[in-house]
Amino acid sequence: MKITITEDTIRHVAELSRLEFGDDEIGKFTQEMDSIINMANQLQEVDTEGVEETVQVVDRDTVFREDKSEHWQSKEELMKNVPDEANGFIKVPVIIEKDDNE
Amino acid sequence: MNYLNETIDSLNKKLAGGEITADQLAKDTLANIKETDKKLNAWITVDEDAKVAEDLDFNKNKLAGIPIAIKDNIITDGVKTTAASHILDNFIPMYDATVITKLKEAQATLIGKTNMDEFAMGSSTEHSYFGATHNPWNLDKVPGGSSGGSAAAVAGGQVVAALGSDTGGSIRQPAAFNGIFGIKPTYGRVSRWGLIAFGSSLDQIGVMSKRVKDSAEVMNVIAGGDEHDSTVSMREVPDYTKFLGQDVKGLRVAVPKEYMSDAVDEGVRKAVQDQIDVLKENGAIINEVSLPHTNYVVPTYYIIASSEASSNLQRFDGIRYGYRAKNTKNLLDIYVKSRSEGFGTEVKRRIMLGSFALSAGSYDKFFRQAAKVRTLICNDFDKVFAENDVIVGPVTTTPAFGIGTEISDPIKMYNNDILTISANLAGIPAASVPAGLVDGMPVGLQIMAKRFDEGSIFRVADFIERQNKFYEKTPTGMEE
């Protein structure tokens, strides 16, 4: 059975994904996602009654290790790729929402 | 230095005999890349200051002083690593992936990072922030993907071997399109620590080289346990070169009928059938078998891989590293704008598909159903391997397609992977070895084996290589 994907669905999934699409892109993107999701929907044809899920193909059980700290990089090294910093801290805009007019 | 007629053995002999120094070899390699990459665009970063290891021991280390190429989704200390994405285009890692540490311990020279589809998502290396790579056999064709840069660099004679990664065929399909050998080892054979994650239950680092033996040499170095990656097997790593030079008498070879159907281009089927006939003439037992869920591997894979990707790629938020959008009002705005401006279209599609498949209301119908179908796909393989040593067939349904011909049709692009993604879903090792030319473009023979039986793959691939001697052919796009 065909699933219909609407622009609203795509906007909702974009929000979950922390992505945004302009009004000029959303139409084309919705169409593409509609065909991809309907391709994926073929899976409904397969009888999986009583079949276990496979989510990994590892030949080991969960591996535990001692919870101990390890000295790795210096603070300077860790900060090297930070896009914006001040006084050794990572700088970000205000976290508490402000009104645009404030 | 042009590597088209070189092997790790021939280079090792030259270096050990003092015919060339490792420093000179590195310089000559860089000079040749500079010249030939105008045609190929196989590299994102070429390390002009590439360091040769000290106290080279040519007896102990086959790779000593030999330049190796690294796909740009494998982390390299102090050398820019982008995964071909705008969101990481200024990222300089501060540690090495385990495979890099192992290559350095083996004294290989690391000369740079190769082009790829952004975050390894694609089958053509057209989805790169740094532009498309061209196929050395015909510059108007794609090299395949996502390890297209590594494949073109090897096929074009820029290096003798390269590392790639394979989540759904990203080593084997470009190896097939470029007329070289490429192996995706068993999931858990090679550490993934330092590989930028795409689909964590599917990703595996592997090797690409013109000659089969050279991949065996590199596998000997990179395979094995790693305390940083608990999914890596602690099983002993055999010497893979021991599987070379053997015959195929009595080897049980399965050919899935679904892999030789009309959906596969006639020329590709014929080239593959010729190799199967050679195996048969030399005493292999050929059995036609069925992998009945082959029709469902594409949807299963795209749901699972995209779901894992949507989760793995959450870390790219513009805060601690990578691209950060300008003029943002608040934290949420940084996330949304940095990601929307930093990721390319294909990566966004995969994140969106994954978020959709995992979202409330869709999880059971898509993700859980795909995970169950994955079990059925694994069972298909178990059944075949109960009575066979290897499975062979084509790698791709067609030879390399033209640049720009499929990029606007995602579903057509996804269907390119139909013959390769099962091996990732089942975690088994699989490789592509050149089978011949179809309309002047190379096609590959795929060889799959039981988990941790890379040895049988090397045995068959080496046998095929000795029979068809494809390596004697020169890529037509590199001629003046």
UniProtKB/TrEMBL annotation, chain A:
Taxonomy, superkingdom: Bacteria
Its biological purpose: Allows the formation of correctly charged Asn-tRNA(Asn) or Gln-tRNA(Gln) through the transamidation of misacylated Asp-tRNA(Asn) or Glu-tRNA(Gln) in organisms which lack either or both of asparaginyl-tRNA or glutaminyl-tRNA synthetases. The reaction takes place in the presence of glutamine and ATP through an activated phospho-Asp-tRNA(Asn) or phospho-Glu-tRNA(Gln).
Assembly and oligomerization: Heterotrimer of A, B and C subunits.
Enzyme nomenclature, EC number: 6.3.5.-
Gene: gatC
Catalytic activity as recorded in UniProt: L-glutamyl-tRNA(Gln) + L-glutamine + ATP + H2O = L-glutaminyl-tRNA(Gln) + L-glutamate + ADP + phosphate + H(+); L-aspartyl-tRNA(Asn) + L-glutamine + ATP + H2O = L-asparaginyl-tRNA(Asn) + L-glutamate + ADP + phosphate + 2 H(+)
A family per Pfam: GatC
Biological processes, Gene Ontology terms: glutaminyl-tRNAGln biosynthesis via transamidation; regulation of translational fidelity; translation
Transmembrane segments: none
Keyword terms, alphabetized: ATP-binding, Ligase, Nucleotide-binding, Protein biosynthesis, Transferase
Designated name of the protein: Aspartyl/glutamyl-tRNA(Asn/Gln) amidotransferase subunit C
InterPro entries, alphabetized: Asp/Glu-ADT_sf_sub_c, GatC
One of the record's GO molecular function terms: glutaminyl-tRNA synthase (glutamine-hydrolyzing) activity
Protein family according to the UniProt entry: Belongs to the GatC family.
Species in which this protein is naturally found: Lactobacillus pasteurii DSM 23907 = CRBIP 24.76
UniProtKB/TrEMBL annotation, chain B:
The keyword Protein biosynthesis is annotated on this UniProt entry: yes
Coiled-coil annotated residue ranges, if any: none
Record Pfam families: Amidase
Function: Allows the formation of correctly charged Gln-tRNA(Gln) through the transamidation of misacylated Glu-tRNA(Gln) in organisms which lack glutaminyl-tRNA synthetase. The reaction takes place in the presence of glutamine and ATP through an activated gamma-phospho-Glu-tRNA(Gln).
Protein biosynthesis keyword on record: yes
Gene name tied to this protein: gatA
A GO cellular-component term linked to this record: glutamyl-tRNA(Gln) amidotransferase complex
Domain Amidase: 27-456
HAMAP family in the record: GatA
Family, similarity comment: Belongs to the amidase family. GatA subfamily.
Superkingdom of the source species: Bacteria
Reaction equations catalysed: L-glutamyl-tRNA(Gln) + L-glutamine + ATP + H2O = L-glutaminyl-tRNA(Gln) + L-glutamate + ADP + phosphate + H(+)
Signal peptide region: none
Protein name: Glutamyl-tRNA(Gln) amidotransferase subunit A
Record EC number: 6.3.5.7
InterPro entries noted in UniProt: Amidase, Amidase_CS, Amidase_dom, AS_sf, GatA
GO biological process: translation
PROSITE patterns per record: AMIDASES
Gene Ontology MF: a single term: glutaminyl-tRNA synthase (glutamine-hydrolyzing) activity
